[in-house]
Design a protein that fits this description.
With about 375 residues, the protein is of the alpha+beta class. It is built from 17 helices and eight strands. The protein has three domains: about 1-200, no CATH class; about 220-300, no CATH class; about 305-370, no CATH class.
């Protein structure tokens, strides 16, 4: 194992050290399995597509005694503590940006075990939870900064899309909500969500409501943009601004100057005269496109919600709260509609008070749009 350790592990990487301690005295089958996993980047292209031959070989090698447990352990260790790269302090990230560092020798193995986790079978609830944590850390969908790795995030998205069962699907729904579309591997997340939903037979109407983008908005409908430490952690912008979706459905951008003064604009969100020169044109253009994307999502949601009026659907209270009332985009429109919840005992419906917390109204009830009153004289 000494030659293998020298090539695949990294004494300066905490995760590598924990995994290496597990990779001692391996059987011949596992001694073949570990370097196969470490070779994953050679079969992993820029579109996050895994070579079919690598997947077949992985599936075959996973049948060896101890292979399943080894993958579960390694992925669990990736989920534990900091990210693979160990950097968790946002104050140091600016010094990290643009600094070329040789990749850790253990990075290939980290990608390999993450991809292999998608080929596990049996009870996969815990591994799905670990993969989701790995994905969030490496796609900067956490409340604290972690030094990201797009390939590890993409591998976690791919693995979750390959795992059978509802646990992985629930984690994918949550990731779709929290991971910003600006993250490079977001495309593979979308594909994984679609693949898992198709496999589980998720109805189109449920897929539509569960994949409405959050656009990085906080629960109050705002997105603060700036250098890391002064705005959203996933957006390191060379300007300061606040994007807001108001209760009226209007979207605004407040462009903030160095002296703290601000100028508010609406669609098409033009910046103040000279603002691009004082900041950076690419950051301004990106923020404008982001705001325009929110406007487009609001328009699409208006159309979708209008169509719900004639469908006579009901939702479990937790789903309705998550995907309608409290969604930072859909919620703006949903809260303006009249909803009813099923009273205990199934004796009728009562109006939903939008100001009441979910756990105080009817957490086990179902919710529906209030039926339209019949027109006068209608039978």
């Amino acid at each position: 194992m000494s030659d293998l350790a020298a090539d695949l592990f990294d004494p300066d990487n905490d995760w590598s050290n924990r995994v290496q301690a597990r990779c001692t005295g391996l059987s011949p089958e596992l001694a073949e399995f570990v370097p196969h996993l470490a070779a994953a980047p050679l079969f992993w292209d820029h579109r996050y597509k895994v070579d079919a031959a690598w997947k077949r070989r992985t599936t075959a090698l996973l049948k060896a005694d101890g292979a399943d447990a080894l993958v579960r352990f390694a992925v669990g260790e990736l989920a534990r503590d900091g990210s693979f790269h160990g950097m968790t302090d946002a104050r140091h990230v600016i010094r990290d940006l643009g600094r070329a560092k040789p990749p850790s020798p253990a990075r290939g193995l980290a990608i390999g075990v993450t991809l292999a986790a998608g080929r596990l079978r049996g009870e996969t609830g815990d591994v799905a939870s670990d993969l989701a944590v790995v994905a969030r850390k490496n796609a900067q969908a956490m409340d604290t900064y972690h030094r990201v790795d797009h390939d590890i995030a993409g591998a976690a998205f791919t693995a979750l899309g390959d795992l059978p069962g509802p646990a992985a699907m629930e984690e994918l729904w949550a990731l779709h909500y929290w991971v910003s579309p600006s993250q490079h591997p977001h495309k593979v997340l979308v594909k994984s969500v679609k693949r898992a939903a198709a496999r589980l037979g998720v109805p189109p109407h449920e897929f539509a409501e569960r994949t409405v983008p959050r656009h990085g908005l906080e629960s109050d409908g705002t997105l603060t943009v700036g250098w890391i430490g002064h705005g959203a952690l996933w957006w390191n912008a060379a300007l300061d601004a606040v994007l807001t979706v108001h209760g009226t459905g209007q979207v605004t951008v407040d462009w903030i100057e160095e002296d703290g003064t601000s100028t508010r604009t609406t669609a098409p969100f033009r910046s103040p005269t000279g603002y691009k020169t004082r900041t950076r044109a690419d950051s301004v253009d990106y923020l404008r496109r982001h705001a325009q994307g929110i406007v487009a999502t609001l328009h699409a949601e208006r159309v979708r919600l209008a169509a719900l009026a004639g469908e006579n659907r009901t939702w479990p209270w937790p789903d309705w709260v998550r995907y309608y009332r409290d969604h930072p985009v859909t919620g703006v429109l949903a809260r303006a509609l009249e909803w009813e919840y099923e009273v205990p005992g199934g004796t009728g419906y009562a109006p939903v008070d939008m100001g009441v917390p979910a756990n105080a109204t009817a957490p086990s009830a179902r919710v529906r749009l209030r039926p339209a009153e019949p027109a006068p004289g209608a039978e």
